[in-house]
Amino acid sequence: MESLSLLMEGFAGALTWQNLFWVFLGCLLGTAVGVMPGLGSSMAVALLLPVTFALEPTAAFIMFSGVYFGGLFGDSTMGILMNTPGQASAIASTFEGHKMAKAGRASQALATAAIGAFIGGFIASAVVVFLAPFLAEFSTQFGPAEFFALALFAFVATSSVVTDSAVKGLLSLAFGLGIAVVGIDSVTGVPRFTLDSPYLFDGISLVTVTVAVLALGEVIYFATIARFHRKGELIQSKGRSWLSWKEFKEAAPAWGRGTAIGLPFGVVPAGGSEIPTFLAYGAERRLDRRRREPQFGKGAIRGLAAPEAAGNSTTGMAMGALLALGLPISATAAIMLGAFRQYGLQPGPLLFERAPDLVWALLASFFIAMIVLLIINLPFSMVWAKLLLIPNHYLYSGITVFCGLGIYATSGSTFDLLMLLGVGVVGFLMRMHDYPLAPLIIGMVLGPLAETSLRDAVISANGDASVLVQGPIVLTLYGLLAIVLLLTLRSKVTSRTRRDT
């Protein structure tokens, strides 16, 4: 009951006309960017990060939440209409969604995606309201050793579980950790890896790195490798833009199962919503094989409904894990964690005590964002597809200018612009050689936490490193990590064996 009363207070803060404007703007921007090929919610948040420093924290994070959820739907719109998902989390939705579109059911496919996103996100937001305070209370039991184990869990899981090559994932993580240690050591006051340059004494800005890697690097890639060519043909939507009662009954169980599959992955640092969307799709496909007339491969509505609900329920729960534990499960969540720190806020139990107005207004905005997205996406899905008519050279040159303006506005330093270009080239090289970017961002964001926790734990134990593997929470985290790695190894060995046979 206390959570409900706090949520009502959050709605009072979120339903001001200013905050409603930021929710609406975030949903619009997230969907618009998600529709664009090669872009996504990560890039949208990275580009907006410098701009939002002019806003007060509540407004900024309310807009970020709209961008986060809106980007997911934009990604799916591209996958359905052009068979070109904006991000990996939308790949599973393209399998049956694009077939529905090719069969003349594009409008019904987009409606299925919109309703699935609404159901998954809304249920996840409701779970977060009741679960986040308990997670925050539970995290008060975390000491330095527990936080180090949590950071290590995030490092290993995101760098090895969701990547085709664990080596590339770990190298990307190492690069992020390397960036994180540049600057003056907070304990000893000794400059580290600064090359005696005063510009690096304060470290390398997270904002600069995220904009460079996620936005500028992507622009360079499309300019030099992809050459702005779009794959696939845009399918025009015809007929009714709503579901018949028969279609709704067909999709409803899949929405429910997809939501249930996605919820647990919101608190597991396994790379975001890619894994649960594929699991939801696979579950529906296995169920479909038992039917007298299997529909998969012909545009099965359940094959689209389940991944959409799973992806958004994972995203909703991920926001709860971010607020209560300070644990990012994806690159976008890591950027938002960095944004909290830029405002001098640390997600976790103290956030619920020190900034309750912000926390509960943000949680309330999740529900508002779900409703706004349903309103703007059900009738206007094809309008978003018209954004594809923008010439790519105009689009990407505009993004480049926006990158430079955003970084210069936050620092006023020419050195940061040169750093933006340098890291952008590195991001391009990583993109060209299929190095994952999420481990880099998570390594940079959680690196300082891991370093500080490691030092504090060992110092408090008078140099006894065994403290790092003592305690029920620590052992549980390492046990879960071992299980995740074993399951991942088994899955990769099985898939490789199937390819060889």
From TrEMBL:
Record's keyword annotation contains Transcription: no
Keywords: Membrane, Transmembrane, Transmembrane helix
The keyword Signal belongs to this UniProt entry's keyword annotation: no
Pfam families to which the protein is assigned, alphabetical: TctA (PF01970)
Annotated DUF112 domain residues: 20-442
Annotated TM spans: 20-39, 45-73, 109-136, 142-162, 169-187, 199-223, 321-340, 360-380, 387-408, 414-430, 437-455, 467-489
Protein's name according to its UniProt entry: Tripartite tricarboxylate transporter permease TctA
Naturally occurring in which organism (per UniProt): Kocuria atrinae
